[in-house]
């Protein structure tokens, strides 16, 4: 690992340690970023918006996937056909 913090984060996958806990429901997470995304389910915060149709998302990655419905992009292909 290039950074000590990345090693510590990785080691949690082996130990099962989940130090970040949601104050609303008690669900626990290995990374603070996971907790922050989860907390949006309680606040209904949707900071990412599609510029084509206005649909909103909790995560930027979900917006990027959605945008493919407008562009027709299909980045994954079956190797059989």
Uncertain stretches:
none
Q: Judging from the principal axes of the Cα atoms, what is the shape?
A: flat
Query: What's the architecture of the domain at 4-43, going by CATH?
Result: 2-Layer Sandwich
Helix/strand-derived category reads mainly alpha
Strand order of the largest sheet: 1-2
Assigned CATH superfamily of the domain at 4-43: Classic Zinc Finger
Largest sheet: 2 strands, antiparallel
Strand content: 5-15%
Quote the CATH topology of the domain at 4-43: Double Stranded RNA Binding Domain
Percent in helix: 40-55%
Radius of gyration of CA atoms, rounded to a whole number: 17 Å
Topology, number of strands: 4
Notes on the protein architecture:
With 81 residues, the chain is mainly alpha-helical. The protein has a domain at 4-43: Double Stranded RNA Binding Domain. The protein is 44% helix and 10% strand. Strand 3 and strand 4 (56-57) form a beta hairpin. The longest helix is centred in the first third of the chain and has 12 residues, at 4-15. The mean pLDDT is 95.
């Amino acid at each position: 690992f290039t950074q000590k913090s990345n090693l510590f984060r990785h080691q949690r996958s082996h130990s099962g340690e989940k130090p970040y806990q949601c104050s609303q429901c008690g669900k626990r997470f290995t990374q603070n970023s996971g907790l922050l995304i989860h907390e949006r389910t309680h606040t209904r915060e949707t900071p990412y918006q599609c510029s084509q149709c206005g649909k909103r998302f909790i995560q930027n990655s979900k917006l990027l996937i959605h945008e493919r419905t407008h562009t027709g992009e299909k980045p994954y292909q079956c190797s059989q056909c």
